[in-house]
Amino acid sequence: MLGQILDGRYEILEKIGEGAFGETYLAQDHKRPSHPQCVVKRLRSDIPSQYHQRVIEFFHQEAAVLEKLGEHPQIPQLLAHFAIDDRLVIVQEYILGTSLRAEIVPGKPLSEEAVMSILQDILPVLAFVHRKNVVHRDIKPENIIRQPDGKLVLIDFGAVKELGTLIATAEGGLKTSIVIGTTGYMPSEQIKGRPQLASDVYAVGMMAIEALTGIPAPALPEDSQTGEVIWRDRAQISDRFAWVLESMVRERHTSRYPSAIEALEALNQVFVDSSSSAPVSSSTVTQSSPITIASATGSRLAPTQMSNTSSRSPRISPQLSRTGLRSAFPKVLMASLLVTFGVVAGRSIGLFQSVELNTFDHLLRWRPSEPVDDRLFIVTIDEADRQTYGEEVAGIGRVSISDRYLNQLLQKLNQEHAVLIGLDLYRDFPVDPNQAELAREFQQNPNVITVCKTKALGGDSIAPPPDAVADRIGFSDFVVDSDDVLRRHLLAATSEMIDPDAPCTAPYAFSTLLAFRYLQIQGLAPDFTSEGNLQLGNTIFMRLQPGTGAYERVDAQGNQVLLNYRSAPTPARQATLRDVLSGRTNPAFIRNRIVLVGVTADSAGDIWRTPLDDNMPGVVVQAHMLSQILSAVTNRRPLIWAWSSWVETLWIGVWSVIGGVLGWYFRSPLKLGLTLILASGVLIGICWGVMTQAGWIPLVPPLIGLLLASGIMIVYFRSHIQSSTEAK
Questions:
Q1: 286: in domain
Q2: Cβ–Cβ under 8 Å, residues 519 and 580
Q3: What is the enclosing helix (H) or strand (E) of 155?
Q4: How far out from the chain centre does Cα 268 lie?
Q5: CA-to-CA distance for 87 and 386, rounded, in angstroms?
Q6: What is the predicted pLDDT for the residue at 326?
Q7: This prediction's pTM
């Protein structure tokens, strides 16, 4: 199937799943402008005759269900439905992300809050499905995908999956029926072939219990007499939440919630109950009319006496609180300016740099997902490849790939017409004399780029391959911040950074050199502006300066820019070395692509902390860097940008003034708290929205200004009123 084009448009890229009656493939739609990826489900040709007609009915049913439900943003859309050679085919939207199975792991229980969050996201989707009178019948962690933006998507509405057969008695005889579902998540009525909407509720409940207990659903014990699941003593959760889950997984479907709609209502009530405040006591009631209330001692106090006994500040009249705002505004402004000055001063000495960088990482992760860069392909050398294709080299130790297999790989990539080959491998030793062809590749193939390591950023320098040509060698050095996170991209080294006596004197980064070569094919030559900024075509890579974003104190030597990571699990398609050498990789993935080769095994030590992943292999980082350059030049994908210092100061000042005004205007702590939460949410939303356009604007400093200014005004207000009361 690989490489086959269905219906003249859907190219099969790889197989991603297989069941008893169907196969699932990742495909690419060549008739849509962006050539998006999609999922193709196809009936197997070897379906037993006794099931054939029923399976076809299920297949048509899946298409009808997807067409009816695909309008929901958390359900895959149906793209096409047709038959080829009497084998039915469904094409649906490809959902990027990871299954919930990555979060619900045996032996690792989740917290009540985490499980409630999952249910609050997936139950509304299932409620939508149930309103359409559709039973999913196979809800489990594997069929729920968490997208990069955090949203959960419910997949697999059909029968071309894991289908089993059930021998059941019917009117004294035996009959065979097809049962859809997965053991542990199927209630008794579904096993008997009579699924209800409540069957899906049971599956969701079992999934939640599995997450809370860390025990796989099929392994949870049952009461031998009632058939009820025994789990309560294995989870530390509130009684309210436990009651909802118990009602979801009752043995008899008539004792469960009828559908996800009722289950969601019950869950929301638990959330409201757990979030509501305690009943208001007499000591927190503000009286505005001349009545009396009982004191703790049983005596009765007049309203004029309450100011000295109540735990609450005396009440100021509504008229004074509103009209006084205008006269108090100079004080609000003064307090806000002082807060702004303090926050900006603290920021200038790097007081908030660590938390700001951490916030930057979160904003980067929250961005919408992007497709992989189709110009790139990564060949990974994992631990299994190191053991199979590596070798011991005298005086060096074990290298990840021997000269023999490296030569085979280069020949394979050349045969598949890779446009460039980037070897992110340290090879500072001579080529094996028996592999003269490999030496010629290094010497004569202009499309092979290799690496070395400079001394500019510390550590020992590592030489390039002895046979490599100087203008085809790039340095592999990365710049990390004080918290060891890689957020910056060193494009080129300045002359001061290069030690002419060191083994590595490459002036350009590995990723930069690959980009130069690729863009030269398109007629774009690199240049430098009068300020020393790299320019490619109309794109200027502005050098990082102290004061950019949160970087107040930063070593910005060389041509550095912020690294705008591609918002995807991986920046490019990948395949292991063994798959490439054995021919199991689709040649279309390599043809006319830049192929990067690097080690991903942990034992190699080329693992980096990044905003997206704490364990990102170096070759994947190189792919992100190369993609950043190419996308900025040819696709107008923006580089990370930041405001000037004076604009950032104004921004912090605006939010400090907002905090001061809110602190003066709202007298009720509850109202003020809710308003500050809303204002903080607006601030976070703005910063996130700007980050989706590659803009890094301050979040932590204005948030501090907002809260600090409101706090100062609260203190001032209470002290002012207290003084007025005592004077009276």
A1: no
A2: no
A3: none
A4: 26
A5: 42
A6: 53
A7: 0.57
Question: What is d(CA 373, CA 370) in angstroms, rounded to the nearest whole number?
Answer: 9
Return the exposure string of 556-566: e unless at least 16 CB atoms fall within 10 Å of the residue's CB, then b. bbbbbbbbbbb
In the residue annotation, 361 being an active-site residue is answered as no
Among residues 438, 444, 440, 448, which one has the least CA distance to residue 399?
A: 438
pLDDT level of residue 287 (50, 70, 90 thresholds): very low
Residue 229's nearest CA partner among 264, 198, 203 is 203
Crossing angle of helices 436-444 and 403-415, in 10° steps, is 50
Highest mean pLDDT: which range of 173-182, 266-275, 306-315: 266-275
Distances (CA, A) of 634 to 375, 422, 496, 536: 11, 20, 31, 10
The pLDDT tens digits of the residues spanning 659-675 come to 999 988 886 788 889 99
Which pLDDT value is given to residue 161? 36
> Do 112 and 46 fall into the same domain?
no
% residues pLDDT > 70 (the chain): 87
Q: Tell me which residue range forms the domain holding 480.
A: 359-641
* Count of structural domains, the chain: 4
Tokens 């062809």 found at: 437
Point out the catalytic residue in the list 29, 46, 138, 373.
Answer: 138
Q: Is 13 helix (H, G, I), strand (E, B) or coil?
A: strand
Q: What are the structure tokens assigned to 334, written together? A: 């003064």
Helix or strand holding residue 214 (H, E) = none
Q: Say if 588 falls within a structural domain.
A: yes
Within a domain: 290: no
Model confidence at 43, pLDDT cuts 50, 70, 90, reads confident
Residue 266 sits in the same domain as residue 380:
no
Same-domain check for residues 229 and 141? yes
